[in-house]
Amino acid sequence: MAIRVEIQIGIVFVLALSMGWASVAKSRPSGSGTAAQTVAATQSEEARSERLEGAWRAAIARTPPQGRGCFTAFYPLTVWKHIRCVTAPLQPYLPTSGVPRITAAGAGNDYAAGSTNTLVSSAVGSFPTVKDLTSEIDANGNPNVYSLQLNSNFMPNDPACSGASDPGNCLGWEQFVYSSGSNTAFIQYWLIHYGSNCPDKKWALYGDSCYMNSEAVPVPPQKITELPHLLLSGSAVWQGMDTVILTTKKKAYSRNGDDTVDLATGWNAAEFNIFGDCCNHRAYFNSGASLAVEIDLTNGSTHKPLCQAGAGTTAETNNMSLRKCSTSGGTPSVQFTEEQTLVSFDVPGANEPLVAAINKDGVTTGYYQGSDIYEHSFLRMADGEIVAFDAESPGNTMALDINDAGVVVGDTDTQGFVRATDGQITLFKVAKSNQTAALEMNSSGTIVGVYNVFRTDHFILHGFFRTSDGAITTFDVPGASQNCGANSSSGTRPSRINNLGYIVGYYYDKKCKIRGFIRNINGAIAIFDPPSSQETDPYDINDAGTVVGVFRAPDGWTHGFLRAADGTFASIDPPGARYTDRDRINNAGIVVGTYLADADGEPHGFVRGNDGKIETIDTPLSAGTELCCIGGGNSFAGTYYDPGFETAHGLVGSP
């Protein structure tokens, strides 16, 4: 009887397709038609064919086979045929560990479709829109290595946890997985925090958790460009079988198996996305790629589901940034988009461009060494156009900042400069200084900078600010050392100025240790150091008065800090960092910077959200990534290096 039902479903779908093809055939032009008509008709036929194939994929993904085992189906039928199962790869698709992230999808930072008041019996994940996707690699540069995962929520009180060392702490979890690395689709079951004695030998131990796989259905290799055709569905039947189904363009593959964890009685949310293939790995997509993700639920309801932010359960990630999420009813559905926003660039004729700043419109500036060995400056517009310029020639020109109006400041060998938006350059110098550098310009056109004066065998640093009318005011921190020994610096060194006119920086105290300071608009200077700091180097201040920087701790390592306007401190150290370097903060409270990791000793960029969550930013196949700056529009910029650190490239992106 079950076989008869399957055949009837297949016949109904074939009849529907036949009617569609009949209409296509009637629309074909006669031999007397023009070439344009022929092309148009062909395109129309291709579009109809794709719609019919899409309808078949949607139907077969929601039609579990009858019986236990592995199955395949072929377009246009929805009749399943038995095939031989294979062994699933013994590799863990890990549960999220709670390590905070903000920009990469995965590791908890993902949307889930949440069912309201009713349990989920099945879910289908798909990518209805795929734009500008050309490639995907893993961390080692291998192409087309990824997983599709449809993951359940974590389920307390799962019956399979009854034998756990602490059943109240044990969680059931189920994943429907397609692994491109092994060319298989299967189900992975987890008993999280079960304890070191797994239920039997079928289970593998990972930490204090246990996991096991169903048998797997073999799937032909699927390149990343096939993503629009890949649907992954999972279903659960109480005291019945759980089913995974993967569709390709014209075929479908399924594995029917046991309900090893009791998904049918605990499933209330579903996460779906594309991630690295197991083991906390990441999938890296080409720059500019964009995906629309959809999760459809069957839960006995037509109400809109919940779009649950931060409700992902897998530890695997991709390098996409999540965008807005929406929901719809009828078939309860969640839709969201994600984008790959890291864009690399080079300056023509440049040797290792160094990006220094980015403004709210995504315009970057910096400098590079030319073939003449001099430093030259550049602007990169938001559309990618690059404009090179010099303030002096011959000589060095180093652009150090750009404000939101597009005005650039920096220094030459001995002078500061201002480059207006029309390209006009103004040079200036603090009286009696050996060298003057303009470090930053705020929205009112006030520049903060540093100048030095050479004294026999050492330099003394002094701060200044220059208002939009060209007037220069110098200042020093009272008590700043004026001599820290031969061939060394001393004095006062500002770093940044906010739009209210508050200035941060450091100075050398009487022991020639550097300490942080804030100068307010009335000229009053406050000294500060993070707790246990041996030396303090503030880098930036936003309009809320929040300061970020680094300090040297008693252990000798450099750590990041955030100082709120009320004087309280918070740590800014990415997980695994042994050395945190320069950081910047914008008015939204988002911080970017660079750190060296314990694991590899290489530089990595990071973004810290205003909620304190930190995400590592790495450029695929690079020797290291450094983030220098963030704009008011939340776009960030930096530099990354080819293997061997022989060549550097510019980098822009957004959370």
Written description of the protein model:
Helices cover 8% and strands 44% of the residues. Strand 28 and strand 29 form a beta hairpin. The chain has 655 residues and is mainly β. Helix 1 (2-27) packs antiparallel against helix 2. The protein is elongated.
Q: Concise description?
A:
The protein is mainly beta and 655 residues long.
Straight-line N-to-C gap: 54 Å
Shape: elongated
C-alpha-based Rg, rounded: 30 Å
Number of strands: 50
Brief descriptors of the model:
elongated, mainly beta, 655 residues, ten-stranded antiparallel beta sheet, disordered N terminus, single chain, nine-stranded antiparallel beta sheet, 8% helix
Layout of helices and strands:
Blueprint: H1 2-27, H2 35-61, E1 69-74, E2 81-83, E3 112-114, E4 122-131, E5 136-137, E6 147-152, E7 155-156, E8 171-179, E9 184-192, E10 204-206, E11 209-213, E12 217-218, E13 231-235, E14 241-247, E15 251-258, E16 269-275, E17 282-285, E18 290-298, E19 306-308, E20 317-318, E21 321-328, E22 333-339, E23 343-345, E24 351-358, E25 364-369, E26 375-380, E27 386-389, E28 398-402, E29 408-411, E30 416-419, E31 425-428, E32 435-441, E33 447-455, E34 458-466, E35 472-475, E36 489-497, E37 503-508, E38 514-519, E39 525-528, E40 535-541, E41 547-552, E42 558-563, E43 569-572, E44 577-585, E45 591-597, E46 603-608, E47 614-617, E48 624-630, E49 636-641, E50 648-653
Parallel strand pairs: 17-20, 34-36
Antiparallel strand pairs: 1-2, 1-15, 3-16, 3-19, 4-13, 4-18, 5-17, 6-8, 6-16, 7-8, 8-9, 9-11, 9-12, 10-11, 13-14, 14-15, 18-22, 21-22, 23-50, 24-25, 25-26, 26-27, 28-29, 29-30, 30-31, 32-33, 33-34, 34-35, 36-37, 37-38, 38-39, 40-41, 41-42, 42-43, 44-45, 45-46, 46-47, 48-49, 49-50
Helix pairs in contact: 1-2
